[in-house]
Amino acid sequence: MLQIKHLTKTYGNKIAVKDLSLHIKPGEIYGFIGHNGAGKTTTLRSVVGIQQFDQGEILIAGKNNQEDPLACKKVIAYIPDNPDLYEFMTGYKYLNFVADIYGVDSILRQENIQKYGDLFEITQDLGQPISTYSHGMKQKLAIIAAWMHNPQLIIMDEPFVGLDPKASHLLKGMMREVCEKNGAIFFSTHVLEVAEKLCDKIAIIKNGELIKQGTMEEVKGDESLEDVFLELEEE
Amino acid sequence: MLGILVKKQLAEIFRNYLYDPKRNKARSLSSKIMMFVLFAFLMIVVIGGMFFSMALGMQVMIRLDYGWFYFIVMGFAALFLGVFGSVFSTYSTLYLAKDNDLLLSMPIPIQDLIASRLISVYLMGLMYSGIVCIPALIVYFLITPFTFLRILGGLVWMFVVSVLAFVLSCLLGYVVAQVSTRLKRKNIVTVIISVIFLAIYYVFYARAMDMMNILVKNVALYGQSIKDASYLIYLFGKMPEGFLGSMIGYLAVSLLLVYAIWHILSHSFLKIATMTKTTTKTNKNKTTFHQHSLFKALLLKEFGRFTSSANYMLNCGLNIFVMPIAGIALIIKSQEVMNVVKALSQNVEGGLVVMICAGICLLASMNDMAAPATSLEGKNIWIVQSLPIEASLLVKAKACMQYILTALPVCFLSLCVIFAFRLSLLSSLVVLIFPQLYCLFTALFAAWIGMMRANLQWTNELYPIKQSLSVTICLFGGWAVSALIGFFYIYVGHYLGMGVYLLLMAIILLVLSYVIVHYIDHHASERFMNMH
């Protein structure tokens, strides 16, 4: 589903990501962990195609995201770490805007909005301007928008930040559902407990370099993910 | 505590003089000095000079022993400027201050908080009313000898005017705050109210000299009428002439009003400061889930952004309202305008048509909503970057928004012009079509320059809307191009004749439009990808 080959990105003299390679297969939830400034967001933004990179190649469903960005964007959805949405729109207008962009028909969009709106208990607020939403509500709206077109690959940057426990639980279930339908999830998180319980595979990045990746068992063995992560950070 | 709060209030009012929001840092000392010198120049030389001229124009009243009438007129002018200069800052600093929650959560006595806000409102009113009062007093003392009572009376008069401005500002600010929290379409209402105020201002400004002359000529008649009808107003004018009774009376009333405002606010400030805002809620209906084409979705987004901000509409789309008004005014004043245009043009019918086209283009140039549109994506840029949208389509949607919002009023204006000047069929077609081509070109140009000069790192939307280079280029460039269309015809184009000249201009506009579209089609994606 997603292949990152030798990704390198620099900001001036600073290397943000160095020769990073990953392969995420359909049906996998892939966690991406690392300290602040390790290069997680840069990698995710490069995958989504909203950031140019210096070297490497990113393939989404077999298509190169630099050569055919539109085809790649059609099958993915992205939730950034800070959901800055169009504050001049209402929730409904924003969801309809996203649905129009992906060409989602009226029936499916109505079903999805109703379904996820009710799940996240936000339906009654969808008629309000987004400017009146709390951070958590914006995050929920960004999640519903991401799920609107039934994407094959969902990229999320710290998706659990700002969500209440119920919404976090729902999101985990939705992530698992996507994978059951042969989709894939690639997300970054600082919550190691969540990563440990939820992810099929995990990658740890430090100072722009991938220092460990694989299945949860391969990465942590008998230890907790927290212990492994802290050990790797100290090395 | 009060001192600290007043200092904070004043720093907030003069924030832009101390802090550069473009670069997100404090201004250098030289920059601060320059900003304050410019401010002083504007207030003292430009506005103060204007009212000094007004006072000089009415000095006859003083010489005719109607000094009290002179002070009534100047006092009301000061009151008007004081109230309208400070009412919006009253609304934002007194009633709907953004830091109300923060300050109310701190151990600050509520009286200190109210007092600090009231002092800043009073100082704003004093500043604006002073611009009228001080020139009025200077002109008065140039004619009348100084006496202790007159100097005292002048100071009391100025104080009374500033207090009345303060009281009215507080009351009007309260009304504005109440309306603002309850209004649903407040952006549109703000624009309409602003346009009405502008219209009143320009009508008043245009007729000010005539009104002043009538007043001066009939000073005895009007003076007597005022004295008979309202003795209190007469006493208001008598204050600076040294009439002690009116000074004491007005001073007492002023202090009473200040106390009343203080008393009312002490009891209601908490309620006002913590009132919740009403928001527009859209209920679900049959059309809520309608599917739109990609382009229409982008276009609706642009319209939504435009109508969401009164600042955006007023600064970049004011001529949507002005052009139809101009068209109607033209029908009313067609003969006078025609005489002027005839005098300017050599070939009457042809010259008239070119001048009309240039004039319409000049007005159309003042709509430039596509120019800041890309910058206004701001921190939301990730949305259009991450969605499967051709960047060229997005830029064209921005251009299309400007074209629709400009072409419709331009069309109306063209029809008014055709009706007003009774143009021939050919001339009518030219007046209808040429400005439309110009609108198309300016819309594409604005969207293109907006993309080329996009700046997403703003903290206040006013910066891309008012101060960005793309907006400046569109506005002044549009005026220059429109003027050149007229001038070229006068000096060169008339040899070709109106038809050939405008056809040539139309071809140039079309070719330039095509070049812009070509550039957008081939380079917009790359440009958008590199925007952060």
From TrEMBL, chain A:
<dbReference type="InterPro" id="IPR003593">
    <property type="entry name" value="AAA+_ATPase"/>
</dbReference>
<keyword id="KW-0067">ATP-binding</keyword>
<dbReference type="GO" id="GO:0016887">
    <property type="term" value="F:ATP hydrolysis activity"/>
</dbReference>
<dbReference type="InterPro" id="IPR051782">
    <property type="entry name" value="ABC_Transporter_VariousFunc"/>
</dbReference>
<dbReference type="GO" id="GO:0005524">
    <property type="term" value="F:ATP binding"/>
</dbReference>
<keyword id="KW-0813">Transport</keyword>
<protein>
    <submittedName>
        <fullName>ABC transporter ATP-binding protein</fullName>
    </submittedName>
</protein>
<keyword id="KW-0547">Nucleotide-binding</keyword>
<dbReference type="Pfam" id="PF00005">
    <property type="entry name" value="ABC_tran"/>
</dbReference>
<dbReference type="InterPro" id="IPR027417">
    <property type="entry name" value="P-loop_NTPase"/>
</dbReference>
<dbReference type="InterPro" id="IPR003439">
    <property type="entry name" value="ABC_transporter-like_ATP-bd"/>
</dbReference>
<feature type="domain" description="ABC transporter">
    <location>
        <begin position="2"/>
        <end position="232"/>
    </location>
</feature>
<dbReference type="InterPro" id="IPR017871">
    <property type="entry name" value="ABC_transporter-like_CS"/>
</dbReference>
UniProtKB/TrEMBL annotation, chain B:
<feature type="transmembrane region" description="Helical">
    <location>
        <begin position="469"/>
        <end position="492"/>
    </location>
</feature>
<feature type="transmembrane region" description="Helical">
    <location>
        <begin position="429"/>
        <end position="449"/>
    </location>
</feature>
<keyword id="KW-1133">Transmembrane helix</keyword>
<feature type="transmembrane region" description="Helical">
    <location>
        <begin position="352"/>
        <end position="370"/>
    </location>
</feature>
<feature type="transmembrane region" description="Helical">
    <location>
        <begin position="68"/>
        <end position="97"/>
    </location>
</feature>
<feature type="transmembrane region" description="Helical">
    <location>
        <begin position="403"/>
        <end position="423"/>
    </location>
</feature>
<feature type="transmembrane region" description="Helical">
    <location>
        <begin position="312"/>
        <end position="332"/>
    </location>
</feature>
<protein>
    <submittedName>
        <fullName>Uncharacterized protein</fullName>
    </submittedName>
</protein>
<feature type="transmembrane region" description="Helical">
    <location>
        <begin position="118"/>
        <end position="143"/>
    </location>
</feature>
<keyword id="KW-0812">Transmembrane</keyword>
<feature type="transmembrane region" description="Helical">
    <location>
        <begin position="188"/>
        <end position="205"/>
    </location>
</feature>
<feature type="transmembrane region" description="Helical">
    <location>
        <begin position="498"/>
        <end position="520"/>
    </location>
</feature>
<feature type="transmembrane region" description="Helical">
    <location>
        <begin position="243"/>
        <end position="265"/>
    </location>
</feature>
<feature type="transmembrane region" description="Helical">
    <location>
        <begin position="33"/>
        <end position="56"/>
    </location>
</feature>
<feature type="transmembrane region" description="Helical">
    <location>
        <begin position="155"/>
        <end position="176"/>
    </location>
</feature>
<keyword id="KW-0472">Membrane</keyword>
